[in-house]
Amino acid sequence: MMGSLILRTAARFLLPLLLLFSLFMLLRGHDEPGGGFIAGLIAAVAFALYLFAFDAARTRQLLGVDPRLLLGLGLLAATVSGLPSILLGEAFFTAIWWPIDVPGFGEVKLSTPLLFDIGVYLLVLGAIMTIVLALDEAEEE
Amino acid sequence: MLLAVLSGFILAACAPWLTRLLGDRAGWVLALLPAALFVYFLSWIPLTAGGAAEVVHYSWIPGLDINLSFLVDGLSLLFALLISGIGTFIIIYSGGYLHGHEYLPRFYGIMFAFMAAMLGVVLSNNIISLFVFWELTSITSYLLIGFNHEDKQARWCALQGLFVTVAGGLALLAGLIMLAGAGGSFELSELLNSGDVLRDYPLYTGMLILILFGTFTKSAQVPFHFWLPNAMAAPTPVSAYLHSATMVKAGIYLMARLNPGLGGTDQWLYTLGLFGAVTMFTGSFMALRSTDVKAMLAYSTIMALGTLTMLIGIGTEAAIIAALAFLLAHALYKAALFMLAGGLDHETGTKNILNMGGLRRLMPVSFITACVAALSLAGLPPLFGFIAKELMFEATLHAPAIATVTTVLAVISAIMIMAVAALFALRPYTGKLKETPKQPHEAPPSMLAGPVVLAALSLVFGVAGFLPVQGILHSAVAAVHGSPLEFKLYLWHGVNTPLLLSLLAVVTGLLVFAGWDRVLAVYRRLTFIDRFGPERGYERVMAALVWVAEWQTRVLQNGYMRNYLITILLTAVALAGGTFFIYTGNTVPFGTVDITFYEAVIAALIIAGAIVVSLMQSRLGAVATVGMVGFGVALIYVLFSAPDLAITQIMVETLTVILLVLVLYRLPRFLNLSSTAARIRDALVALLFGGMMTVLILAVLDVEVVAPISDQLVAWSYDEGHGRNIVNVILVDFRALDTLGEIFVVGLAAIGVYAMIRLRAEDKRS
């Protein structure tokens, strides 16, 4: 399935923008509308657009890794984010914050909820791409 | 103490690797752990003298009163010593028995996990952690019984053992929770001191039935005894360990442990006393019927378990002393006998006692050891088994209410067990040498160490009865009785009724032994045992379970999406709507709603979309119209300032369209298959559900039961969660554990979909 020239050109330009936007949504999610779930959906839509414009093989190539790996990494990151609190003697999933001052940028709030949110992001992206790619490839066969 | 219990689990994790590293010496080296534990537990003996108990406490889940607390007193120490002591020899023995076996590393792993679980059961003070260890023994023993997993029969037997013991385990859990509720504590050390409260508990009988269901299944009491002989499908070291000295003793342990708390009532006496006596009789009756050496021993184990249950039920001072002496005697001789049976099997290649004979020249050490251990089994002087049996007769003769029944059954059992002991010790070794599948020779040292030491201990304890008493039995009796008792154990009690009963049993038993071939012929005619035994009941129950499962799968999982939806929606209407109607009746408190112009327009759009989609004749059009409904909902979210929800809704709508487009190509041409009646039915269900939701939401607007939680969440969000987006703070911080569960569901769903798509694609190709 190859899309039209217009779609392909648009997809090429939109993909990096959408991905950037998804990262933006991910990182600002704690204060403004956004978050890992929404950002993951946006990233998945970006890749899905690319899939429609080109094909499954090229989308896989662009992703670089098997989406199932992203899925697993997401679950791993989310689970691991619960562990530091145990080491500090707190209950599982107690949020830990490490605010860092980056010169010329301002305060960056590193935290376990951020890692958790990244996990959610990777999982959503991985789960949707797993299904979408599998459907598309099954159709081609 | 924590390390002592958990070290088995740790070693279980490294055992497979260590076994490969150590090669042939693995058995001897790995046995160092149980040996070290044995020494460690020995060092506790002085602390428990005179019935003293120590509680060692480690927090686990303090919020739920679940702790890894350990109770060390005579009873738990006696069991811990048996588990670690016999465990040492079993590990050594396994190295010889399973020499060169492909799965030996795995075997050691499971074995150590089992040992640790067993130690956990007998040492736990917290009843919930006791239950956890209890179930761990069921699971590990399942793996051990089914160790020869390529053998269908072994798998079946393992599953049977698992089902029976785990069914009992569930009942036990309920019983233990009731126990905690009645006694107001999860700690055994406190529960056992509030025996009067427990016995006066209004639901005492129900609680007792639940707990005993757990212990009876675990300890193979009639009518649940059938799994134990089948468990002989396991390699012999497993049988020797699990089914003589440990696993099945877990139930006995728990009954003995709870005796000060629950014992002393009529229910206790009759249930334990009678079930125990019948089990004792059944075990010995079936043992005499067997020609397979392992089955013979398995049934005699059932006899011993019945005896122990009966004695705990009788609960007099004499009975408790007898129970603990019998327990020790049985563990010593039975482990030895099982290991010897394994030796016979290993060296001759057959388990059938009819095919063996004249082995005494070839296997002299085995022969002598077998004689000593069998003397203890038969209860003959000067072995420790004799003392135990005399005590048992003494206890049954003076039992309250059920003395006649128990004594008669005890004597009959003793006769048959005498014959079985003689058969086991003499039949394979005496007479003419018979042709066997393998050329027999003496078993290797690793397989003789255990039997020789354990049989020797039976002899030493018999001659010097004060040794075990001073050592451990005194404090163990104190723990079971609830207060210390003074007693001494001698071989010679003078001429009294127990001695005469023993004499009767020995003489008659030897007569039975002499005429065993004729006895067997009689047994062969009793085919009803196989046709109507409780094992048939188990098979019926399992078949019924499968039948019900198939039936309800056919009904519920019928493969029609619309049926699933109708079921779900109607259930919701019935439950939520019904409840709503019951509480409000006809006076529905409708809230007044101000509707703005925008809201009305969006609502109209959504409704229009819903109507159009149900009339649409093309799939692509339906997809687009469903999208209209979805985007309308997103707009409502925007109006009510829920931007996160709106964005999510829009993204999900977009992805739904993408997925539908991908699937659309794969669907057959659009067809209208449903009849008009079906469509009217569907419309009614939809209207009913929609109507209920509308009424419900209108009513909710007017009712405020408690203050909404959102104000508090807003306040916490920035101070505690360092974020202004409350939705996100809740998702990733306040309720992160819930979110974790949800993303696991998403992940699993994706894997499930992936698997289905790939499998179908592969099906097509092949």
From TrEMBL, chain A:
<protein>
    <submittedName>
        <fullName>Multicomponent Na+:H+ antiporter subunit B</fullName>
    </submittedName>
</protein>
<comment type="similarity">
    <text>Belongs to the CPA3 antiporters (TC 2.A.63) subunit B family.</text>
</comment>
<dbReference type="InterPro" id="IPR007182">
    <property type="entry name" value="MnhB"/>
</dbReference>
<feature type="transmembrane region" description="Helical">
    <location>
        <begin position="39"/>
        <end position="57"/>
    </location>
</feature>
<keyword id="KW-0812">Transmembrane</keyword>
<keyword id="KW-1003">Cell membrane</keyword>
<dbReference type="GO" id="GO:0005886">
    <property type="term" value="C:plasma membrane"/>
</dbReference>
<feature type="transmembrane region" description="Helical">
    <location>
        <begin position="69"/>
        <end position="98"/>
    </location>
</feature>
<feature type="transmembrane region" description="Helical">
    <location>
        <begin position="118"/>
        <end position="135"/>
    </location>
</feature>
<keyword id="KW-1133">Transmembrane helix</keyword>
<dbReference type="Pfam" id="PF04039">
    <property type="entry name" value="MnhB"/>
</dbReference>
<dbReference type="InterPro" id="IPR050622">
    <property type="entry name" value="CPA3_antiporter_subunitB"/>
</dbReference>
<keyword id="KW-0472">Membrane</keyword>
<feature type="domain" description="Na+/H+ antiporter MnhB subunit-related protein">
    <location>
        <begin position="6"/>
        <end position="130"/>
    </location>
</feature>
Automatic annotation (TrEMBL), chain B:
<dbReference type="InterPro" id="IPR050616">
    <property type="entry name" value="CPA3_Na-H_Antiporter_A"/>
</dbReference>
<feature type="transmembrane region" description="Helical">
    <location>
        <begin position="595"/>
        <end position="613"/>
    </location>
</feature>
<feature type="domain" description="NADH:quinone oxidoreductase/Mrp antiporter transmembrane">
    <location>
        <begin position="124"/>
        <end position="411"/>
    </location>
</feature>
<dbReference type="GO" id="GO:0006811">
    <property type="term" value="P:monoatomic ion transport"/>
</dbReference>
<keyword id="KW-0050">Antiport</keyword>
<feature type="domain" description="MrpA C-terminal/MbhD">
    <location>
        <begin position="604"/>
        <end position="669"/>
    </location>
</feature>
<feature type="domain" description="NADH-Ubiquinone oxidoreductase (complex I) chain 5 N-terminal">
    <location>
        <begin position="62"/>
        <end position="108"/>
    </location>
</feature>
<feature type="domain" description="MrpA C-terminal/MbhE">
    <location>
        <begin position="679"/>
        <end position="758"/>
    </location>
</feature>
<dbReference type="GO" id="GO:0005886">
    <property type="term" value="C:plasma membrane"/>
</dbReference>
<feature type="transmembrane region" description="Helical">
    <location>
        <begin position="320"/>
        <end position="344"/>
    </location>
</feature>
<feature type="transmembrane region" description="Helical">
    <location>
        <begin position="620"/>
        <end position="640"/>
    </location>
</feature>
<feature type="transmembrane region" description="Helical">
    <location>
        <begin position="295"/>
        <end position="314"/>
    </location>
</feature>
<dbReference type="Pfam" id="PF00361">
    <property type="entry name" value="Proton_antipo_M"/>
</dbReference>
<feature type="transmembrane region" description="Helical">
    <location>
        <begin position="447"/>
        <end position="469"/>
    </location>
</feature>
<feature type="transmembrane region" description="Helical">
    <location>
        <begin position="739"/>
        <end position="757"/>
    </location>
</feature>
<feature type="transmembrane region" description="Helical">
    <location>
        <begin position="680"/>
        <end position="701"/>
    </location>
</feature>
<feature type="transmembrane region" description="Helical">
    <location>
        <begin position="201"/>
        <end position="217"/>
    </location>
</feature>
<dbReference type="InterPro" id="IPR046806">
    <property type="entry name" value="MrpA_C/MbhE"/>
</dbReference>
<feature type="transmembrane region" description="Helical">
    <location>
        <begin position="489"/>
        <end position="516"/>
    </location>
</feature>
<dbReference type="InterPro" id="IPR001750">
    <property type="entry name" value="ND/Mrp_TM"/>
</dbReference>
<feature type="transmembrane region" description="Helical">
    <location>
        <begin position="646"/>
        <end position="668"/>
    </location>
</feature>
<feature type="transmembrane region" description="Helical">
    <location>
        <begin position="268"/>
        <end position="288"/>
    </location>
</feature>
